[in-house]
Each structure stands twice: as C-alpha cells, then as structure tokens.
C-alpha cells in the first residue's frame, strides 16, 4: 500500500527569507522555516495572514519575489519534474472537471505519477466507494474535499501539503480525516497543513507556526505555545455595578491575585490567564464583590492556541 521513504538526513522543507508581494499587499514578509522528515507541521493564522501564499510557494505554484525554497533537498528551478512526483497537494479550493466521475478523476491524477497507490485504494482511503461512478459536479462540498485529498495521495507522496483539508467537512468526516492523517504520519510522511481549527492543530500537529500579516509570530509545539500564555486556564467575565454602569475593574486588583498571570479587556469582556482555577476563582469573586460589581457572564476554559494568538496580537483569530 502506501510506502513513503523520507530522507532523514535533511529537512523535508526549508524556507529562507521568503517574500511575496501582490501589488501593494505584502502577502509573505520574510519567512524562515524548517520542517523535519516525518513531522506534521501546521500553519495557523487569520484570513489573509499569508498561509496559502506560503504553501503555494512551497508547492511551486507561486514564485516568491525573493528567498530560497528547498523541498526534500531539491528546488523548483532545477528539480521540478522530480518534485512533482514526490509531493502531494490539496489546494484550498480545487476545480475538478464536473463531467468526469470520481473514478475517472482519480485515474487521471494517477496517470500523472510514475508510481503510486491504486485508484481503488485511493477511493477507499477517501471513503468515496459509494460515489465512484458519480460525476464530480454532483458531489457535495465535503465529498469534493475528500476527492481532493484522494488526488493528493494517489502518487504516494513523501511530502504532503494540505490547505485547510477539513474546512467544510461534517464532524464525522473531519474525525475520519484526522485518523487518516494519523496513519499517514505513522507511515513516516511529512505533512504540512493549514487550518483555522485550533483543536485540529493541537490534535494533529507536532509543531505549529502562527502567522499574522505575512510573518511567523510564534513557532513551537502546541503545548509549549500554550504554556507561553502563562496560565493553563483562561477565565472570562463581564461585570456591571449599580453605581458604575460600565463595571470597570482596576486591572491591578485582578493581576495582584495570586495565580493570575495576565489581564486583557476586549469588548467589555475581561480575560485572565490563570494558573490554578480553584484558588484564583474565589479570589476573583471577592475582588468583584469588594468593588460592588456583579457578574453578567462568567466562563473558564483550558488555554488553547487561540489564546496564544490573542496574547500575541490582542486580537481574536475569528475577528478577522
Ligand atoms: N493572486 C493574488 N493577487 C492579489 N492579492 C493576493 C493574491 N493572493 C493572495 N493575495 C493577498 O495576499 C494576502 C495573503 O493571502 P493568503 O491567501 O495567502 O492568506 P491566507 O492566510 O491563506 O488566508 P485564508 O485563511 O483566508 O485562506 C491577502 O491579503 C490576499 O488578499
Ligand atoms: Mg488560505
């Protein structure tokens, strides 16, 4: 079946000083990146951060204005044919020929590669058995996405680029794709993916780079990035008072609480990163009570990569 042979001696992907400008938009603003063989690497960031441009530069679809790109020890200038045989890619949006069937589409893609898996195996991998004879134009969005994944895998790639592979998939199809990616990782393949789903990045990626405005603003393993927020838990609340309608709280009173690492106020919601909930929460309540404030909203969650983005930029990923 699938049979990848990563080269352990050199990075699967190496970017140095990569830049790309479209008219007056700097889409990628000097990126350095090294992805090791067998790694699952995630690119995260809000809309327009430059993830697709970066990945398309890696895939040889967009030429960078400057910088070096090396994949599997090769480059697009001198080794394009070999690279096309050894990588698999799923674009953010793929336009297939609507009149062709699923099976015909996969047969066509399989014909582009000297070696690979059988069309039958790729249909099975993407769980498209029931749709093998359906015309592509009749597939649902999620089914098209799975067909794109099958096309990315049919050449048995060592290095796989997936641009938002689970966007538009239902929860079950999403989990199935996670299981598939786990298997591809176990086979030693290198995977580079973009996603807006923080839980997905935490679950799948060995390391992630958080991008914003064309730059990498943080790069590490998900647990280390989350630890960098300073507290394991996030407490969010909104408060009002009878005499002071906006419910203002002096941030110094909150950050003075033992175990509270940081405070931020966004759109009326106070957000604290906290080491231990059971000791900090009662103290937060008593500070609010001492100020004559009562809670309108209160919630806690374990810190996530989303909180990392907020702590780095002061913005929510979803606000973009
Ligand atoms: N072909 C193009 N022509 C002009 N501008 C472009 C082009 N491609 C990308 N851009 C711009 O470059 C910036 C980065 O876009 P890119 O598609 O790389 O972002 P992204 O991080 O993939 O976003 P999303 O999460 O929405 O997919 C955006 O401002 C976008 O408008
Ligand atoms: Mg994109």
TrEMBL record:
Q: Which GO terms describe its molecular function?
A: ATP binding; ATP hydrolysis activity
Q: Which residues form the ABC transporter domain?
A: 13-238
A Pfam family cross-referenced in the UniProt record is ABC_tran
Compartments in which it is found: Cell membrane
Keyword Transport found: yes
- Give the record's GO CC terms: plasma membrane
Keywords carried by this UniProt record? ATP-binding, Cell membrane, Membrane, Nodulation, Nucleotide-binding, Translocase, Transport
Q: What family is reported?
A: Belongs to the ABC transporter superfamily.
What protein name applies here?
ABC-2 type transport system ATP-binding protein
Q: Which organism is it from?
A: Tunturiibacter gelidiferens
């Amino acid at each position: 079946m699938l049979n990848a042979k990563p080269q352990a001696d050199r990075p699967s992907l190496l970017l140095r000083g990569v830049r790309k400008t479209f008219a007056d938009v700097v889409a990628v603003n000097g990126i350095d990146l090294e992805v090791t063989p067998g790694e699952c690497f995630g690119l995260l960031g809000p809309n327009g951060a430059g993830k697709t441009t970066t990945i398309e530069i890696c895939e040889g679809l967009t030429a960078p204005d400057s910088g070096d790109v090396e994949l599997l020890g090769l480059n697009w200038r001198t080794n394009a044919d070999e690279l096309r045989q050894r990588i698999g890619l799923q674009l953010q949006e793929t336009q297939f020929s609507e009149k062709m069937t699923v099976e015909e589409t996969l047969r066509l893609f399989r014909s582009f590669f000297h070696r690979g898996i059988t069309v039958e195996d790729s249909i099975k991998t993407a769980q498209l058995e029931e749709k093998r004879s359906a015309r592509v134009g009749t597939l649902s969005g999620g089914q098209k996405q799975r067909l794109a994944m099958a096309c990315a895998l049919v050449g048995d790639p060592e290095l796989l680029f997936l641009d938002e592979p689970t966007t538009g998939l239902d929860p079950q199809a999403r989990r199935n794709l996670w299981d598939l990616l786990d298997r591809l990782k176990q086979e030693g393949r290198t995977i580079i993916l973009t996603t807006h789903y923080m839980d997905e990045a935490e679950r799948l990626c060995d390391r992630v780079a958080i991008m914003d405005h064309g730059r990498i603003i943080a790069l590490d393993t998900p647990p280390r990035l989350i630890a960098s927020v300073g507290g394991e838990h996030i407490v969010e609340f909104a408060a009002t008072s009878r005499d002071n309608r906006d419910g203002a709280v002096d941030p110094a009173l909150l950050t003075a609480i033992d175990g509270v690492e940081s405070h931020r106020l966004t759109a009326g919601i106070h957000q604290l990163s906290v080491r231990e909930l059971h000791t900090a929460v009662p103290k937060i309540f008593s500070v609010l009570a001492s100020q004559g404030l009562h809670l309108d909203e209160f919630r806690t969650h374990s810190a996530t990569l989303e909180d990392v983005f907020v702590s780095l930029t002061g913005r929510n990923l979803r606000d973009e």
